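Lecture notes, continued. The same structure-token format from the folding unit now serves as the input rather than the output. Read the line below as a description of shape only.
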């Protein structure tokens, strides 16, 4: 599994990871809550600079590949690599060097609309996609939700079919 880290100019980290129960348990036990936060809407972790080293260690322990992204050339310290990596999360290519995580997350939503509709990352494994589809189906099904959500359910079904076929 891949994880992505955006290293902000103040040393704080933004972690974009697929769901990993072990990682969640470890980040909660090793980094105090006032130094970390989770944004469920964007599905990202924020870690303050004081605990950046621990966050990097946890990422290396739990994920096979960790991409470190530097948002802008002016924000790099002398210890940083000579060129920032393009944002691999949004796959926008070498021309893309985002200045904010929100912009990166928005790009992911535009490039991967089916993933966005199911609220999963592009690197999400099949069981996670299936679980997200089932959970959203229970919320959006017109017979269960008690409201006219036929259009929402059709969009969800189309997104899941798109991901399932790999189109």
């Amino acid at each position: 599994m891949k994880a992505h880290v955006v290293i902000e100019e103040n040393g704080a980290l933004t972690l974009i990871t697929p769901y990993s129960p072990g990682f969640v348990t470890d980040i909660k036990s090793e980094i105090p809550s006032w130094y970390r936060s989770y944004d469920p809407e964007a599905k990202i972790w924020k870690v303050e600079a004081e605990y950046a080293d621990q966050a990097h260690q946890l990422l290396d322990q739990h994920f096979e590949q960790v991409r470190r992204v530097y948002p802008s050339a002016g924000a790099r310290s002398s210890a940083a690599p000579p060129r920032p990596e393009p944002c691999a999360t949004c796959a926008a290519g070498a021309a893309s060097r985002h200045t904010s995580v929100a912009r990166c997350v928005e790009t992911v939503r535009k490039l991967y609309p089916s993933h966005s509709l199911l609220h999963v990352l592009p690197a999400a494994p099949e069981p996670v996609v299936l679980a997200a589809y089932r959970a959203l189906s229970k919320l959006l099904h017109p017979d269960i939700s008690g409201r006219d959500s036929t259009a929402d359910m059709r969009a969800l079904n189309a997104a899941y079919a798109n991901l399932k076929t790999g189109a």
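Point for the exam: The chain has two domains: 2-111, 113-165.
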